[in-house]
Design a protein that fits this description.
The complex is a heterodimer of chains A (600) and B (261). By secondary structure, chain A is of the alpha+beta class. Chain A has nine helices and 28 strands. In chain A, 26% of the residues lie in helices and 37% in strands. In chain A, strands 1-3-5-4 form a four-stranded antiparallel β-sheet, with no helix packed on it. Chain A starts with a helix and ends in a 6-residue tail after the last helix. Chain B has three domains: 110 residues, Serine Threonine Protein Phosphatase 5, Tetratricopeptide repeat, CATH 1.25.40; 73 residues; 60 residues, Roll (SH3 type barrels). Chain B has a five-stranded antiparallel β-sheet. The interface between A and B is large, with 31 and 46 residues.
């Protein structure tokens, strides 16, 4: 138990140290700056050290030995603010640096020690010129008026680059020099900047500069100007109204306190700028006129997504230049993979070291059309870099997306499919429109089922079937029953014999003729009765026919023709052609009648 | 055969052919006339003169000609004219001719939603529902020809097997399969024919249609029906039909309040 308590206490101790460390880490900043980076031997610069932190007990900075300067403290100011329970303190120390010898001197090693930790300030450099003044010749000339007297005040307008490219930033600096006392604050009328897109960079803290042995207070105001057209442009004059101490009034006033000043207006010089066109050579086809120096990045809010779900891609273009003129990056066509929508654009303009820059953010929404491993390709962006006088093309890194199948998606991964852009409910608003064509008409109430053609089509195969069945049954009967077969074939056979007899019905073939007639009759009766024809005498036939209730006359005729045939076969020479013809005719008539006899 | 007889025979055949030709010509002419009338009716419909459109559509119907499009358009005209009962009636007629047409089905369902009385507890017998789901998308004529096809196939099979005595496994299987298909197709056709033509159906066309418990006005009111409801006619007396609603409620309704499909 004791062990556990010790362990817990120990953990708490470690944690609290960690928390304290975390709180103190990077909590103190040291910012070192100079008001001028170049001075003459007879001039001086102000070194400003700002120590800031989230604590009330900020330590003093430790100054290094600056042997090449006489360092004079200008005092300390402090600033507290309390925001959301956090105290922010900043201490500002100012030192006047008076150079002892010319040269370039780095100033670093300025640091503070807080909570046993050392916080170092940034490094600055001060150049001391040997000629005694950092003031350019032109400026020295300006301070002298027409009569050769040194001016008490003047307003100077300068640009850092008088020959910019169109849309390239130039910085206009208005410097108000004043060496005498003034009352109130000077009132400025801004210069006209037709042909430029203008952004005010702001005022710089006043500083002092010695020109021709006169110490001037200098108030600077800077503007970022972006020429919007080519050719010679003119920046108008700025005007400052200020009340300065009047010498005469000072003499009247014994104490010099109540001196009435006089108001003076000071105009700046005109500034001419020659704006160049961008070089036409090597200009990319998709160049949109952006000038400056930029970076481009693209980030997706997720890299794994279901098909048809949006992925938000943030394309960030940042750098220096007219950020407002940054055109939207070109997104390559990807109809087979994504649908792309513009979500929003936002820009954040910043001013760093008198340069306008910032970030423009394009939010693009990519909706993958199908599952699989997809890639949002590199998004290209190009701009003109005025410092190198060249066009530059930059692009983002491609973003790989893993697109998964949504639930219920059954199509194959290769088939793209579209999610609805809008949902149309199944509820229709009206009936569907009338038909233009009367279409297939039919007689009212007429049905295929009742049509004769339908009945015929169905009945025909039945009839064929029945017919074939009858044939089959008959064939079977014929092959299985000799008597039946003979009876069925009897008439056919008899007719065959009679027709043969007819063909030989002449006196030359009398015997053969009568043999055929005889056989036709006897065979017919024998076949019908399924008995042998041999041994069928006329008496036997007479008896058989009578048994079958044959007509008496028919029986007599049959017997008569049989007897005549017998006779003619053995005495053919006595038969005339007329008799033959008559007997043939009789035989045919007998055959026609004998069929009616029931032999069953 | 004597020459005169031959001439007589030819004459009679010729006269029959002539009659058929004239009949076909008349039919063609009447169809042309109907097409023209149909276009006129459609024009009236487009001009929103629905009463006139109904008049012309009905004129075509009275010439003993019918088509799915005719009943469909007539249904539309009635619907636009505010006569829900006749609209449903004609959509039902159109659907009976061409159950494959989605427009008809759509408009029928759309129109029936407007009926002021909706049936609750509509439950189909599962077997009927199953059979209906099979046959509802086919025309009766189509089913009839399919049945006929299998019937002929079956006859061919038994002819091979019994009349031509091909007694082998193939023909025996042929007989069995063709019979199975014939039974299925024939059964479905019969079901379709029975439910579409032998079962008498009607649509209520009149507002305030009281359904009584018996075939007289003195009977109690079983329910109040509304135009657009479809009923099955079970039996009839002089002035009344005994009707069965989709949810199996039944009663007697005056004949003039309904129209038979």
């Amino acid at each position: 138990m004791r062990r556990i308590i010790i362990l817990v206490l120990f953990s708490i101790a470690i944690l609290s140290v960690g928390i304290i460390n975390a709180q103190t880490t990077d909590e103190v900043t040291v910012d070192v700056s100079l008001d001028l980076d170049t001075i003459g031997m007879e001039e001086f610069a102000t070194l400003q050290i700002v120590v800031a932190g989230k604590t009330q007990n900020l330590p003093d900075p430790k100054m290094p030995t600056l042997s090449m300067f006489d360092v004079m403290s200008q005092g300390r100011s402090s600033n507290f603010n309390y925001n959301n329970g956090v105290v922010n303190t900043s201490l500002t120390y100012r030192y006047l640096l008076v150079p002892k010898r010319p040269g370039t001197f780095p100033i670093d090693q300025i640091s503070v020690v807080y909570n046993n930790k050392r916080y170092k300030g940034n490094k600055v450099e001060l150049t001391v010129l040997s000629n005694g003044s950092s003031v350019p010749k032109s400026l020295s000339d300006k301070v002298v008026d027409a009569r050769g007297d040194t001016k008490n005040y003047f307003l100077e307008a300068v640009v850092d680059n008088p020959t910019p490219y169109v849309n390239e930033q130039i910085t206009l600096t208005l410097k108000f020099y004043i060496s005498i006392q003034y009352y109130g604050s000077p009132e400025l009328s801004e210069p006209t900047t037709t042909g430029f897109w203008t952004e005010i960079l702001g005022n710089k803290a006043p500083y002092y500069q010695t020109i021709n042995k006169t110490r001037y207070k200098v108030i600077e105001r800077k503007y970022a100007l972006f020429p919007t057209q080519t050719g010679e442009l003119e920046i108008g004059r700025a005007l400052i109204r200020v009340t300065v101490a009047s010498k005469s009034s000072r003499q009247d006033d014994f104490f010099g306190f109540f001196g009435r000043g006089k108001e003076v207006s000071i105009r700046s010089n005109l500034v001419k700028v020659n704006v160049k066109e961008l070089p036409g050579m090597l200009r990319p086809d998709d160049f949109t006129g952006t000038i400056g120096r930029f970076n481009i990045t693209a980030t997706a809010n997720k890299t794994e997504v279901e098909a048809n779900q949006p992925v938000s891609v943030t394309v960030k273009v940042s750098g220096t230049g007219n950020i407002k003129s940054v055109a939207e990056p070109i997104i390559p066509e990807m109809d087979d993979k994504f649908r792309v929508y513009r979500a929003s654009t936002s820009e954040n303009i910043s001013k760093v070291n008198d340069k306008i820059g910032g970030t423009k953010i394009f939010e693009e929404v990519f909706i993958p059309k199908r599952p699989g491993d997809l890639e949002i390709p590199a998004i290209a962006f190009n701009y003109f870099d005025p410092s190198t006088h060249k066009y530059k093309a930059i692009s983002t890194k491609p973003i790989k997306l893993k697109v998964t199948k949504p639930e219920g998606f059954i199509a194959s991964a290769d088939i793209p499919f579209d999610a609805p852009d809008a949902v149309i409910s199944s509820n229709t608003r009206d009936i569907r429109f009338i038909k233009e064509d009367l279409g297939d008409t039919r007689q009212k109430g007429r049905l295929t089922l009742r049509e004769p053609i339908y009945i015929f089509v169905n009945a025909l195969p039945v009839l064929v079937f029945v017919g074939l069945m009858v044939v089959r049954i008959r064939n079977e009967k014929l092959s299985g029953d000799v008597g039946y077969a003979r009876s069925k074939a009897a008439l056919k056979e008899a007719k065959k014999r009679l027709s043969k007899a007819k063909s030989i019905a002449s006196t030359n073939t009398t015997a053969d003729f009568y043999l055929e007639v005889y056989t036709a009759l006897v065979s017919f009766i024998a076949d019908k009765l399924n008995i042998s024809p041999h041994g069928l005498t006329t008496d036997k036939i007479k008896e058989l026919l009578k048994e079958r209730n044959a007509n008496e006359e028919l029986v007599n005729q049959v017997i008569a023709i049989m007897k005549r045939s017998d006779f003619a076969r053995y005495a053919p020479s006595n038969i005339t052609q007329e008799e033959i013809n008559k007997d043939l005719s009789d035989a045919e008539n007998i055959m026609a009648e004998i069929v009616g006899v029931n032999f069953e | 055969m004597p020459k005169i007889l031959w001439l007589k025979l030819w004459g009679s055949i010729l006269s029959k052919v002539l009659v058929i030709i004239i009949f076909v010509l008349l039919l063609t002419v009447s169809v042309f006339a109907d097409t023209e009338l149909f276009q006129q009716a459609n024009d009236y419909y487009k001009q929103r003169d629905y009463s006139k459109a109904i008049e012309l559509y009905k004129q075509i119907e009275s010439s003993e000609i019918e088509s799915a499009a005719l009943y469909f358009n007539l249904g539309n005209a009635y619907f636009k004219n505010g006569d829900l009962g006749h609209a449903v009636l004609n959509y039902m007629k159109a659907k009976r001719i061409d159950p494959t047409d989605q427009d008809i089905q759509q408009n029928l369902e759309f129109a029936q939603r407007f009926s002021s009385v909706q049936m609750e507890g509509v439950e189909l017998n599962p077997i009927t529902a199953f059979l209906t789901s099979i046959v509802e998308n086919y025309k009766l004529n189509f089913l009839a020809w399919v049945s006929s096809f299998f019937f002929i196939l079956f006859i061919v099979a038994i002819t091979l097997r019994f009349a031509l005595v091909y007694n082998n496994t193939l023909t025996r299987m042929f007989v069995v399969f063709s019979l199975v298909f014939l039974v299925i197709a024939g059964g479905l056709t019969t079901f379709k024919y029975r439910s579409d033509y032998l079962t008498k159906r009607a649509v209520i066309i009149a507002e305030d249609s009281k359904v009584f418990t018996g075939a007289s006005e003195q009977s109690d009111v079983e329910l109040e029906a509304a135009p657009g409801l479809v009923v099955e006619i079970l039996s009839e007396s002089t002035d009344y039909y005994q009707v069965l609603f989709e949810n199996k409620r039944r009663g007697w309704i005056q004949k003039e309040l309904v129209a038979e499909i």
